[in-house]
Amino acid sequence: MRRTLGLLALALCSATLPVFAAAPPASAPVAKLGAFLGHWVFRGTSAASAQHPATSWTWDEHCRWSSNGVFLECSFDNVWGRTGEKAGTVVQSLVVDTYNHRDHGYWHYELFAGGDGARPFISKMSVQGNTWTELAGHERITYVFTSPREVTVKIESSRDGARWRTEDAGTGRKLDR
User: Fold this and answer.
1) pLDDT, block means (10 residues), the chain with 177 residues
2) Residue 79 and residue 68: Cα distance in Å, rounded?
């Protein structure tokens, strides 16, 4: 009798664990977002322009699955610029990435602390092999995974959608295992 009650108690405790832990990805397409899981640090350079010289930047990114396994949630602490008028500007944001089964596309939603909540940054993402591309209006962000622990990133802008200018370029490295 004690053994039966003990097994029943263990089974009940085990059944409640998923409520408190993040769920695994809900589908195979969502699972691809797992490439961004963990703690990443990006370092790069902004291109020089007529208004300011080239300058360095860092992004500190922490990503995890939502509790229902449908979203990848990432928090960013970005430090833009070491020189110029925006030297040391810290930009904090929350990103939610997901897969839409209706349009078979990946979507990126980003809210900025102190920003205009009515206009988050929203982009559709395409995935081809180890390359992820976000496109939103006249801005394109490309991530190329060179390994599971390293990724290059490039932010480009275009006035006409045909000719692109690199605004920022860098490399991200995954810190946790």
Assistant:
1) 37 39 75 95 91 88 95 93 67 94 94 81 94 94 97 96 94 92
2) 31
CB atoms within 10 A of CB 56: 14
CA–CA distance, 83 with 55 (Å, rounded to integer): 6
Model pLDDT, residue 86: 60
* Amino acid in position 129: G
CA distances to 99, 119, 128, 135, 174 from 59, in Å: 24, 22, 24, 20, 12
Domain 23-174 CATH class label: mainly beta
> What are the extents of the domains in the chain?
23-174
| Three-state SS at 85 | coil
